[in-house]
Amino acid sequence: MKVILANPRGFCAGVNMAIECLEEVIRIFGSEIYVYHEIVHNKYVVNKFTSLGVTFVDAVSEVPENSILVFSAHGVSPQIRQEARDRNIRTIDATCPLVTKVHTEAIKYAQSGYNIILIGHEGHDEVIGTMGEAPESITLIETPEEVADLSFPEDAKLAYLTQTTLSVEEAGRVIQSLKQKYPQIESPPKEDICYATTNRQEAVTELVPRADLVLVLGSQNSSNSKRLMEIGKTVGKPSYLIDGVQELNPEWLEGCESILITAGASAPEVVVDELVTHLAEKYQAEVETATIRNESVRFPLPRELRVLET
User: Fold this and answer.
1) 126 is a catalytic site residue
2) Which of 94, 176, 191, 254 has the fewest CB atoms in 10 Å of its CB?
3) 21 annotated to a ligand binding site
4) Residue 108 burial class via C-beta count within 10 angstroms: exposed 0-12, middle 13-18, buried 19 and up
């Protein structure tokens, strides 16, 4: 058996920053702090911080007044920020800068009188935060078929934005449909789908023909991880999304000569290492790292923390 390790894989710059941010908050203030939603969409990471005493909440009302609250990498709406201020909660913003970019674009387009079409998954934390920036101006769609249901006039002032963790191919189909129906629609100066999402999808797309099976390390609520699994399925390869080696089904490996392993942008390398070690020890798997693209992006810690450190 051969294991092909896709590279790049795992943590992106935004996830790294958010996790480093939370670690630094714990170092400075202790672990009795709160995080709005999961810091990143990964069960291993959330369980690690929970074991240290961090409390993850789904509503600001769950946070005691005068506490410390960290906003997750997915971003929050202005309403959530105001709720925190009303409760005298000290906040530290670990929103990924690429998500912040989308928020800024939404505000700019809304203030300029545009109707904004947001391409994304309903209910995703990032989408909820972005829509909260201009709820009266944003319409959410997910598929090309939904474009046909849009009822804006032919000459409407329109712009589109995208969730940062979408499938590049699927988002492209929706954008193409939008441009066909509304040729005047404006796009952001730079695409919203993040570099890490694009790179990880590119790696799987290029490497999947060499594999009999695709294993993606990541959690079920991780949008970008699901996209990686779907790429494998699209080309007819058995593909599974698992949090770690404990979810590996031995039946999946029957008859497999080569396995492609990757990890979503919020999955830590430790879960990859555990899976690879298991396959090497139990199945004598030989491991090859296949590098498609190198990454060197790094985001600084939030300004609030940098001020405390100086």
Assistant:
1) yes
2) 254
3) no
4) middle
